[in-house]
From TrEMBL:
CC per GO annotation: cytoplasm; extracellular region; plasma membrane
Annotated binding of Zn(2+), by residue: 752, 861, 1097, 1137
Protein name as catalogued: Neutral ceramidase
Cofactor(s) it depends on: Zn(2+)
Biased composition (Polar residues): 23-34, 143-154, 806-824
Biased composition (Basic and acidic residues): 99-108
Keywords on record: Hydrolase, Metal-binding, Zinc
Organism (species): Knipowitschia caucasica (Caucasian dwarf goby)
Length: 1341
């Protein structure tokens, strides 16, 4: 695949960059503002501190949020380069003179950059306060501040360069290089920006000499010093990391955007992390968006990185909460009262608030950083549209939590009238400043609101209080929640500008801080409601009910009684910016010093106030009480310090984990054959030949070694593993590895896709339906399986295996309930369903716990792609593998080390068409007994669902299986331990004596198929007038059979009763045997898990009986405890179906296809029980290998060689016949048609037929983003007249595709005759470049 793409690129070359004229590079320089400290902003915080206990309040804040609250939001100081700026802090009165004096001192210049106004803060009296709250930084000369209690030794030194580098006297350039910007003309913002800013992160590059070292990094976005968004922690193993993160930020007179790169170091307990600042950079928004709404940027992250991102600004109306989406407001931007009346909500709370809050309460209370992590913009937009359409029909169970929290905040932000009015805000602040003896019920504060607003705010505060009560898990304390919701719930900024705050200052610059203080005050006193919903949703953890039942009192400085939290510990020396900001409830020595000092200062202030006015509590008594409390606190602190210094640690160290008991190797390889003219294997439809490629087929190998034995399990995207395929694979393994991998320890299992290529059989019946033995189809399969085992062999390492299982509902249906209901009622009553809903998962990790892969078994047919499909496809099971591997590897399909195999199980009577069978010509249900239609017979009786479109149904089924597997993978904790075992035998299934009891013995039969076999199933019916459930023959068809093939013997007919025999294949041997008689039975045991290799499709009840028998045998001796048994279907050799004796009597398709007679299942149970006993008794070496199956040498092929290719006149192979459009949106389909050759001429599986590339503005090259292995692409090949053929490549543009320039490529081979000899030549072609945009109307033409 890579070889083909490199050849294709060499033809186009980097010089074929986007043929569209790219706008010239523009430079946007941020405004040069001299770094200074605004004295009025400082006094606003410092001076007002004593009025309402602001000092203690600010000291209670976490470090990450304290820096926000203390910053001057309305006119933020310029962002200095990292390592050069000053910490903004809350000065106290005794320091103001020093600040004013130092502010007037002349600045020093070094290297053309502006030096800090205050490079050191000297205040011995409050040194401990600064140690607790703030972190010193190194000055430009690299010397630490004398008073700096902390250092950043682990952080590399920053470059000594100014923020702005003048290019000339008239020009300045920022570290940001603008590559491309487009937008409507006339767009000219002022010195600040207001609107919705969409930030798309594309690519991160770091300059480092630590190659191959894994790093955990994340990014934080600040707007005017305020943290507005952050990414999740990402693992970076190389110097570059591809990103696909989008954030929507609501801006209000914003001036600057800054991006900080953080590195997280996990603690020894692996439960929390310490975050250090690695790099950072910023850009001036006011100068950036001067003539453009969309800008692509390369941001310098000082000192050692670059970040590629794009910014899109959508201007909104100033003030209020106008809906960003525009149009008539149905939900977002609608008046709250009108919305509740329209929805007729009994609780007077909008449905969007009820549904989002209830869903977060159900599964999000323990999610780390809930409400602090932005969701995906595209997914939030989908939720937004769903609520706008009909809020009552929205189901949030499958939505991501961060998208739900984001949509809730968007709704509250866009309300025309915010929930917290000016009157309520003033009332809250009045209570905060009131006399300490005044009490008030917090709920009473909301009485000033209208009924709808009061009910909604009360409902929301109940929820936020509940979130805060789980702060030990989610790290969202009341202060953190207040930071997130203060600007959302309270009055808008422009309204504050026209009002006067209680401190007598303009609201400008203080509104957000007052919002946070007020909401923080409400949350700390709001009673925590009881948790609603099932207890298991929160793992039985009860919330911490803070201040429940207590009266609302003004909180004096130093009074921590209303908090479970205590004074924050000193800032970690390694932590420059802690965005999670978990609160440390354990006091350090610095915390005690701070408490004593802060308490003493507030005591003096209290004494002065009490001396001037008598309190209801009495001043002299209060002084005595406070003095005694001070003395007691001092004694307690000293005692605790001594205990901490001298007390021994009696906690025993945790026991080390046991060493890994296995060597584990996982591998994956492509095994796709030529996607043209070769019949697809599964539906036995002669017209269903390959004509393109949907998804590629892969072989996935898992090797486990315990030091004594080694086992190999391989799952292949193929209809079934044939005996011929297995024998050729074993021959190849012997040539490559000798006797290491043999028939005994290698198990091959097929996923049972019905859209894989055929042609790999050696028995006549299968060869007739797939045009014989096709070498071009067999070789990629054999090579792919061997290659996957070789990759796994090369990747062997120490590791662990964990197992887990759980039910998956509504993803499968029994397609033969008539047969299943014929099983004994007592047996059926032991199971809740007529199909196995259990998903069984094996999780593979290395010795450090990093995931290597997963094996998942679930019983369902891979027939979501129906018999009308002609594209090679791995169907639902293979798609589940692609989804999980792509997510884990963050790479193209087929790339990356994580291997996920979704395997077949006892799927014989299980279909993914969950809506059941309907007549496609009338829409009515099919006949229950024989699954046929009054008009059209069985051909028109087709199973449907979950969607009418087979591609969508495939995705739904695959995604459901993947999600359940992922859930089980994440929660798997039960480790698989114990030795490995394997046992294998060949047996002649046409002549097995089965002992039913002490008096009755029966035998299996020679292979034969019944009349119902020709009727097909509801997943794909037959063309003739056969029906399911036939227990009598048809004289017409029997006569034709007798004339052409010969009549079945009486012995065979008696053995198979009540089956009416259509083909007596066991008695037919021309030109080759029609069915196998020598078959494989095999067991692999991995500690406490046994894998049964079943050579066919066993039904639900058949699988249950077989698993029960093997489990009982293994556990009977006591050697295997709590063993779990899984069925691996379609393994080693294909023998059609295996039903129970009772199901066989009904003679539906499955019973008619049970080729060895009614006692087939009993024979398998007997044989697998013998193998289990040999494993339990450790006597496998004494087993007879059995009769060896034939390796047929003379095979026939009915597929002629591919013809010579022709092309239209005046054209070449690879020329475009139907060009793409110029512009597409996400969700559209880009399509292009080429002059093509026959895909059979291309060497498989190394050839790539189609690809999609995106132009990278940073490197000026085209990057590969999709291939023909991707779900989003489809390659169609159409054979026309005169040996001409076309190839159409479709790209289904996903909703998450970033905007930019793209092109579609096609490569192939064609055959021509030169000098009477056929010659194969390569060709390639590409479409014109086209653009993908979010909206047609925002794109200039």
């Amino acid at each position: 695949m890579k070889k083909t793409l490199s050849r294709l690129r060499s033809r186009t070359g980097p010089g074929d960059a986007c043929p569209i004229a790219t706008p010239p590079t523009q430079s946007h320089a941020p405004s040069t503002i001299a770094p200074s400290i605004r004295r009025d902003g400082i006094r606003a915080h410092g001076g007002g501190g004593s009025a309402h206990g602001g000092g203690a309040y600010l000291q209670s804040l976490f470090s990450s949020s304290r820096s926000w609250v203390l910053s001057d939001h309305a006119q933020a100081p310029p962002i200095l380069p990292l390592g050069e700026g000053l910490i903004w802090y809350n000065p106290i009165p005794e320091e103001e003179a020093e600040l004013e004096r130092r502010e007037e001192e002349p600045k020093e210049s070094s290297g053309g950059g502006s030096e800090s106004v205050i490079d050191r803060i000297r205040s011995p009296a409050l040194k401990l306060r600064r140690k607790l709250s703030f972190k010193s930084r190194r000055d430009r000369r690299g010397n630490s501040s004398q008073d700096a209690p902390l250092s950043v030794q682990d952080t590399p030194p920053f470059k000594k360069r100014p923020l702005i580098q003048p290019q000339s006297d008239d020009d300045e350039v920022s570290p940001v290089t603008s590559l491309q910007g487009e937008g409507p003309r006339g767009f000219s913002p002022a010195h600040s920006v207001t609107g919705v800013l969409t930030v798309n992160l594309r690519r991160l590059e770091l300059i480092t000499d630590r190659v191959g070292v894994s790093r955990c990094v994340s990014m934080v976005m600040q707007v005017d010093d305020v943290i507005r968004a952050r990414t999740a922690v990402m693992t970076m193993t190389d110097s570059a990391l591809q990103l696909d993160h989008s954030f929507s930020l609501q801006l209000e007179r914003a001036q600057r955007l800054r991006v900080l790169l953080l590195r997280s170091n996990m603690t020894s307990q692996m439960q929390s992390s310490r975050t250090r600042l690695c790099a950072g950079g910023g850009v001036s928004l006011s100068t950036l968006f001067t003539d453009s709404q969309t800008v692509d940027l390369v941001l310098d992250l000082e000192p050692r990185g670059k970040l590629q991102l794009s910014l899109n600004l959508k201007v909104t109306q100033k003030g209020g909460g106008a809906s960003v989406s525009g149009g008539s407001a149905q939900v977002f931007g609608a008046e709250l009262t009108d919305l509740v009346q329209r929805e007729m909500s009994e609780e007077l709370v909008p449905l969007i608030v009820q549904k989002t809050v209830n869903e977060i309460n159900r599964r999000g209370l323990k999610v780390l950083g809930i409400y602090r992590v932005c969701g995906s913009s595209s997914l939030k937009q989908k939720l937004r549209l769903s609520f706008e359409k009909n809020s009552s029909n929205v189901d949030l169970k499958g939505a991501e939590l961060h998208d739900i929290t984001g949509i809730l905040k968007d709704f509250l932000r866009e309300l025309p009238s915010p929930l917290v009015t000016l009157s309520l805000c003033e009332e809250v602040r009045r209570v905060m400043m009131s006399d300490p003896c005044v009490t008030l019920d917090p709920v009473q504060l909301l009485q000033c609101l209208p009924p709808v607003e009061r009910a909604t705010l009360s409902f929301l505060l109940d929820h936020l209080a509940l979130v805060c009560s789980f702060s030990s898990f989610n790290k969202m304390s009341a202060q953190n929640v207040a930071v997130c919701f203060g600007p959302v719930l309270f009055i808008q900024t422009d309204q504050w500008e026209h009002s006067t705050t209680l401190t007598g200052q303009s609201g400008q610059g203080l509104d957000f801080k007052q919002h946070i203080e007020a909401l923080h005050f409400l949350l700390t006193h709001w009673p925590v409601p009881p948790l609603q919903g099932p207890a298991e949703e929160v793992d039985g953890v009860l919330p911490q009910h803070r201040c429940r039942g207590r009266s609302l009192r003004h909180r004096q400085a130093g009074d921590w009684s209303c908090y479970h939290q205590r004074a924050p510990a000193a800032v970690d020396e390694e932590s420059v910016l802690d965005v999670e900001a978990p609160f440390n409830c354990r006091l350090s020595l610095k915390d005690f010093d701070l408490l004593i000092q802060d308490f003493h200062m507030r005591l003096n202030q209290t004494e002065d106030r009490m001396a001037s006015s008598r309190s209801c509590c009495g001043a002299p008594l209060l002084q005595v009480v406070l003095s005694v409390m001070l003395l007691l606190m001092t004694v307690a602190c000293v005692g605790l310090i001594i205990a901490m210094a001298t007390g021994p640690n009696t906690d025993p160290p945790p026991p080390p984990p046991p060493p890994p008991s296995y060597l584990i190797g996982l591998g994956r390889a492509d095994c796709t054959g030529p996607p043209a003219e070769v019949p697809l294997m599964g539906y036995a439809n002669a017209e269903q030949t390959a004509a393109g490629l949907h998804t590629r087929l892969y072989s996935r190998a898992f090797i486990v070694d315990d030091g004594r034995r080694r086992v190999v399990f391989v799952s292949v995207d193929v209809g079934m593993v044939s005996q011929r395929l297995r024998l050729e694979v074993l021959q190849g393994l012997k040539q490559r590895f000798g006797s290491l991998y043999t028939r005994e320890n290698v198990l091959l299992s097929g996923t049972h896709t019905h859209s894989g290529l055929g042609g790999y059989f050696q028995y006549t019946l299968f060869m007739l339906s797939t045009k014989g033995y096709i070498k071009a189809s067999v070789q990629p399969l054999v090579q792919g399986i061997i290659r996957s085992i070789a990759v796994a062999h090369r990747n062997m390492r120490s590791g662990r295996i964990f197992r887990n299982s759980g039910p998956l509902q509504q993803n499968s249906l029994n397609r033969s309930p008539q047969s299943y209901s014929n099983n004994p009622q007592e047996e059926r009553e032991r199971f809740p369903d007529d199909t196995d809903k259990q998903v069984t998962v094996l999780k593979f990790t290395d010795a450090d716990g990093d995931g290597l892969g997963v094996l998942s078994w679930f019983a369902v047919h891979a027939v979501s792609m129906n018999y009308t499909n002609r594209l090679v496809s791995s169907d639902n099971m293979g798609l589940s593998s692609i989804i999980m591997e792509t997510e884990k590897n963050q790479d193209l399909p087929g790339e990356g080390r994580f291997v996920a195999a979704f395997c077949s199980s006892n799927l014989g009577d299980v279909t993914p068409n969950t809506r059941g069978p309907y007549c496609s010509n009338t829409g009515l249900k099919c006949d229950y007994l024989n699954s046929s239609c009054p008009v059209g017979g069985t051909k028109f009786c087709q199973g449907l669902g979950p969607s009418d479109d087979m591609f969508e149904s495939t995705w739904i089924i695959a995604e459901n299986i993947y999600k359940k597997t992922k859930e089980l993978y994440v929660s798997a904790v039960e480790e698989v331990l114990g030795p490995l075992h394997f046992a294998h035998q060949w047996i002649d299934m046409s002549n097995v004596s089965v002992r039913l009891n002490s008096t009755h013995t029966v035998r299996t039969c020679k292979p034969a198929l019944g009349h119902s076999f020709a009727a097909g199933t509801t997943d794909g019916g037959g063309d003739l007038n056969f029906t399911q459930g036939s227990v009598e023959g048809d004289p017409f068809w029997d006569g034709i059979r007798d004339a052409l093939l010969g009549a079945p013997s009486n012995e065979t007919q008696d053995c198979h009763r009540p089956k009416p025999i259509l083909f007596s294949t066991g008695e037919m041997s021309k030109p080759l045997p029609w069915h196998p008689t020598i078959i494989d039975v095999q067991i692999l045991v991995l500690g406490s898990l046994a894998i049964l290799g079943i050579p066919g499709e066993i039904t639900t009840m058949g699988g249950r009986r077989l698993r029960k028998a093997v489990r009982q045998e293994l556990q009977s001796g006591g050697s295997f405890k709590d063993v779990e048994v899984v069925v691996a279907g379609l393994s080693n050799v294909y023998t059609h179906y295996i039903t129970t004796y009772e199901e066989y009597q009904v003679q539906r398709y499955e019973g008619a296809s049970t080729i060895y007679g009614p006692h087939t299942l009993s024979a398998y149970i007997q044989q697998f029980t013998r193998l289990s006993r040999a494993i339990r008794e450790d006597s496998v070496s004494g087993l007879d290998s059995g009769p060896e199956p034939p390796f047929v040498s003379k095979l026939f092929s009915l597929l002629p060689a591919a013809a010579v290719d022709k092309k239209p006149e005046n054209s070449s192979f690879g020329d475009v016949l139907d060009q793409v459009h110029g512009v597409y949106r996400q969700g559209d389909v880009a399509s292009v048609t080429f002059v093509a050759g026959n895909p059979r001429h291309s060497e498989m599986p190394d050839h790539t037929f189609a690809a999609v590339e995106k132009f990278d503005n940073l490197t000026q090259k085209w990057d590969l983003v999709y291939t023909d292995a991707s779900w989003e692409t489809r390659f169609h090949w159409l054979k026309g007249e005169g040996r001409r053929s076309n190839a159409t490549v479709q790209w289904f543009i996903p909703d998450t595709a970033p905007s930019g320039w793209y092109r579609i490529l096609h490569a192939g081979h064609y055959k021509e005759i030169k000098n009477f000899r056929p010659i194969i030549k390569e060709y390639s072609g590409q479409s014109e470049a086209f653009r993908v945009v979010d909206n047609y109307y925002t794109t200039r033409t």
